[in-house]
């Protein structure tokens, strides 16, 4: 058994299909299938069970998984030691909700790229939770700490959100002096059955029951607010990117949420991943503080 066999085994275990593993490895699915069959024959054990959704780990595969992951960590550590402590290179994938990915990560990753030109940084912006066990990302930013999985979690920073509307919309519609006045205004928010984390159910805290225009992406919601489609809850750190959008009822409706940095537990042994996590954490804290300071009190 060699490392290349383990690499293919891990790719199928994480991707759960031959095609997904092939895309990760840069080879065709049929090659992946042949390599897995050869590995199973060499070990005398079935590592995977074919299911309607793809490939599931068989009991023997589940027993092999931690050993394959340990080999991966050891080889990564050896490569890091040979490169030296100051050089960060290779591919680095960050998963984040689209608000963070759109308005914070580009600036933060620009600085990390400037400091470490050998890095290839990928930002995956999706309104859902990321599965780090399947290595959908190397690090993930979440809006709540996960309660299950072999993960390490650290709080990054709090951030604030307020009700907001465009100046044109506010000028053309009845004044807003209190929550009761919201009944005569169109509201913008998340599609209710696509809220993937209770922390994102912002409008529930305003007492609003009906959403006139909705999207699963906060960037789309903010553009709708800028276009004068109605009022919505906006991240304070996003307001500097939306000229003409103003906060309303700041004394009555003010929300605080938190970002959390989530890593696979095994990555705590990787000096490279620790340095990347530290750079990302410090950058996000500073960027939230910088952008929120631009918003008028």
UniProtKB/TrEMBL annotation:
Highest taxon above the source species: Bacteria
Residue intervals of the HTH lysR-type domain: 1-58
GO molecular function: DNA binding; DNA-binding transcription factor activity
Keywords: DNA-binding, Transcription, Transcription regulation
InterPro entries the record matches: LTTR (IPR050176), LysR_HTH_N (IPR000847), LysR_subst-bd (IPR005119), WH-like_DNA-bd_sf (IPR036388), WH_DNA-bd_sf (IPR036390)
Record has Transferase as a keyword: no
Entry annotated with the keyword Transcription regulation: yes
Pfam families: HTH_1, LysR_substrate
Similarity remark: Belongs to the LysR transcriptional regulatory family.
PANTHER family: TRANSCRIPTIONAL REGULATOR, TRANSCRIPTIONAL REGULATORY PROTEIN
Protein name per the record: Transcriptional regulator, LysR family
Species whose genome carries this gene: Paracoccus aminophilus JCM 7686
Taxon lineage: Bacteria, Pseudomonadati, Pseudomonadota, Alphaproteobacteria, Rhodobacterales
